[in-house]
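Appendix B.2, paired examples.
Example (i):
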Amino acid sequence: MFKLTILDGPQVDLGQMLAAKDARVVKERALLVAAPTNTLLHVTLRIPGPVKTGTRIEAVFSAVMQTLAQQLGEAVRSSDIDLLPTGPEAYFLTTLSPLSLKRLMVAFENQQRFCDLLDLDVVTLRDAELYQVSRTDLALPPRACLVCGGDAKACARSRRHGLPEVQQVVETIVKESASQTA
C-alpha cells in the first residue's frame, strides 16, 4: 500500500473547506473593491483528500510564488501568501488586464511540473460582481487531469480516479518539485 509522506499537514473537514472558500471570496472582494481597476490573481492548490498541505508543499509553493512574483514584476501592486491548514493560498493584485493575466498564467502553468497542482484564478469586478476569467474566455481547452490527462473537472465530478491514485500523483509531483527547488 502506498504511504503518503508529503501530505503531513493537519486533516481538514468539509466545513473547514467551505469556510475557507467563503473567506477567500470575502478577501477577493475586499481587494478588488479597494482597487477596482486592478486584476486579482488568486492561487490555490488542487490537492484532493482531507490533508491539503505539508512542510514540503508549503516550501515548494512559496518558492513557486516567488518565481511568479518575479515574472509579474512591476505589474504587482500587492501580494500576500497565507499558509493555511486548508492549503496555501496566494493573492497578487496586478495592473494587468484580466485577459493578459490569464494568458500569462496559462503559460506559467507549463513552466514546471508543480504548476500542474496550481489553480491560478484570475478574478476581476464586472458590474460590481466578482468574475473569474476562464480558459474558455481564451478559447482554450480545460485543464488536464493529473492522472489521465483528460478533462480535470469531468474526472473530478465523476470521481473517475480513486483518492489514493490521485494522491500518489500529487506526491510524485511535489517530490520532483522539491528536489528542483532545493
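Example (ii):
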Amino acid sequence: MRVVVFFLICLLPHWALADESLSRMIERYNLEKTDDYLHKQSLAFLSHEIGMRLLERQDYKASIPYFQTALDVDRSLDPDDPYLGGRWTYLGQAYVFDGQFQKGLESLRKALQVDERHYPAEHLNIGIANGNLGWAMIRSRQYRQANEHLQIACGIFTKQLGEQDPQTLDCHKKLNVTLKYP
C-alpha cells in the first residue's frame, strides 16, 4: 500500500506537468496560425511535436490532424523539401496505428517516393522508408508486398549498419514473419 501511495505521490505531478505542457503547446499552436513565414515554420514544428506526444500516448486518431498540418505547412513552404519524407512517415504511422491501413500505406509510399528522389538507392533513409512500408504491409496482412520492401530494407541495413545492429535484426524478424504467410 505504501509503495502505491509513494508511486502516486511521485508520478502524479509529472503526469500533470506533461498534460499541462501539451495543453500549452496546443494553445501556442492555435496562436501560430497566420500567413507569416516564421509563424508557418513554428506552426509546422509545433504541429509535429504535438503529434509526436499524442502518438507516444497512443492517441493515434488525435495525432493525425497535427501530422497532416505539419506536412501541409512544410509542403507549402517547399514542395521539394527532402524532409517531407519524414512528415509523410509520421502521418502514415499514425494512420496505420489507428487502423486506417490504406491511408497509412499511401502516406508511407509517398515517404518512400520523396526519399527516392533525394537519396541514393543504398542510403539508410531508403532502407528506413522500405522498412516502414514493409511493417505497415504486415499489419495490413499484405505479406508478399511486405516481403519485397523488407528485403530491400534488410539489405541496406546489413550493408550500412552491420548484421548485428538492432535495426538489422529487427528487420530480419519482420522479414521472417512474411515468410510464414503466403
